[in-house]
Amino acid sequence: MSRSAGCCQKTLHYVFDYETTKTLVIPNIGVGCIFRFTQLLVLLYVVGYVCVVQKAYQDTDSVISSVTTKVKGFAYTNTSDMDPRFWDGADYIIPPQGDHSFFVLTNMVVTPKQTQSRCPELPNPSTTCVDDCDCIEGRTDTRGNGIQTGLCVNYSQTVQTCEVLAWCPLEIDTQIPEPAMLAAAENFTVLIKNSVTFPKFNVHRRNILPHINSSYLKRCEFNRKTDPDCPIFRLKHILSEAGEDFQDMAVKGGVLGIIIDWSCDLDWWARKCVPKYSFRRLDNKHPVNNVAPGYNFRFAKYYKTPDGEETRTLIKAYGIRFDVIVFGTAGKFGIVPTIVNLGAALAFLSLLPAVSDWFMLTCLSKKHYYSQHKVTYLSEDTEAESISMATSYGTR
Ligand SMILES: *[C@@H]1O[C@H](CO)[C@@H](O)[C@H](O)[C@H]1NC(C)=O
User: Which residues are glycosylated (predicted)?
Assistant: First the structure.
């Protein structure tokens, strides 16, 4: 047999060798416990967390939603700034069509009978003057209220300010009515209609659940304990669940979130798909630094006097904006996520022998004996005899 043929045979011999693992059984309670214990941990993780809590066997889809709202309630005001007045939804809901957010007027500063004319600026360091030289004709200050005419006029008996061309008389908003003018708004109710779709599963739901009939809807009011499915909310109740006092917030306004959580389990054995409501204040109410608090904006109503002059009533409106925030995911059994997560769990199991080996080779009293048997070095020069050597593996 030539040398090269022998080499070839040897190579072939390697290619067609079958390798198998030799199993070493360690009859030690400690290692056995560690191994079973880690197995149990992985099992608990897979069954408890992955399957029950995370529902990793499910395919998921997020919600597409539409919201409409309708506020109802009446109020009657009788204050010095305004004639006695009755208020209904058309007066205090701005804008009239509510969707994902609606605004309820609760307080206001009213400046009636404004006309395009000339009047003295409100006094502050940049508008007070001594004579006409301090006022520049045509000057505009965005923080001011109008275009200066160049005259210095009496604001009051002691103060002189620059005259401006503006909607006069100017609004004075330093005094906000307290308590809020529309305090009765706390008893207003809002009906929230919310339809949701999970397009991947072609599932449609709405927050007026199938068992709600129209006579129940006419008289019910949301209450977490007694009427958790009623879609009609009393504004005061919303605020108190958000930890706010209505009368307090009504004075300067604010933003409040109505959060609707649709977390749906569409598997036939669970089949749970109802909305969960929660409420929280969204604008920041800092207890110490309360600069520029609340929420307000201005709007005006325009009139023509009989002699053709245009006048307006300016309203600085304070109120609570309610934002309806809908979120959620639906889950349904899916074969792909199941396989992927099963694979991940099995990969975890294959790590366990390493943990037990480490314990066996470092912590047990017979560790040298075990490492002698576990790790075998074959000497290279002879094929026939192999010399196993005890190694220092695991002893440091
Ligand atoms: C709201 O309604 C309750 C009970 O119906 C009543 O006691 C309360 O005075 C009302 N609030 C206002 C501000 O009118």
Answer: 187
- The protein residue whose alpha carbon is closest to atom 1 in ligand 1 is 187
Ligand 1 atom index nearest CA of 247: 13
Q: Which architecture, in CATH terms, is 62-121+170-327? A: Sandwich (2.60)
How many Cβ atoms sit within 10 Å of the Cβ of residue 382? 9
Q: Does 237 sit in the ligand 1 pocket, CB within 6 Å?
A: no
Using DSSP bridges, classify how beta strands 85-87 and 203-206 pair: parallel, antiparallel or unpaired: unpaired
Q: CA-CA distances (angstroms) from residue 327 to 102, 163, 190?
A: 18, 53, 20
Going from N- to C-terminal start, the domains of the chain cover 3-57+333-391, 62-121+170-327
- Express each pLDDT in 225-247 by its tens digit: 999 999 999 999 999 999 999 99
Q: How much distance in Å is there from the Cα of 178 to the middle of ligand 1?
A: 17
The single residue listed with the structure tokens 């007027």 is: 105
Distance of alpha carbon 247 from its chain centroid, rounded?
A: 26
> Is the pLDDT reported for residue 1 higher than 50?
no
For ligand 1, what atom is nearest to the CA of residue 184? 13
Place of tokens 């214990």: 37
Please report, rounded to a whole number, the percentage of residues in the chain having pLDDT higher than 90: 39
73 φ/ψ sector (left φ>0, alpha ψ -120 to 50, else beta):
left
Q: What is the mean pLDDT of residues 244-259?
A: 92
> Is 359 strand, coil or helix?
helix
Give me ligand 1 centre to Cα 163, in Å: 46
Task: Please give the model's pTM, rounded to 2 decimal places.
Answer: 0.77
Beta bridge partners of 320: 104, 254
Q: Indicate if ligand 1 lies below 6 Å from the C-beta of 77.
A: no
Residue among 107, 186, 187, 246 to mutate when testing ligand 1 (max atoms within 8 A of CB): 187
Cβ–ligand 1 distance for 250 under 6 Å, the answer no
Mutate to test the pocket of ligand 1, among 107, 186, 188, 247 (most ligand atoms within 8 A of CB): 186
Q: Are 102 and 190 in contact (CB under 8 A)?
A: yes
Name the nearest CA neighbour of 256 among 236, 226, 286, 276.
236
Bridge-based pairing state of the strands 254-265 and 310-333: parallel
Identify whether the C-beta of residue 322 lies closer than 8 Å to the C-beta of residue 238: yes
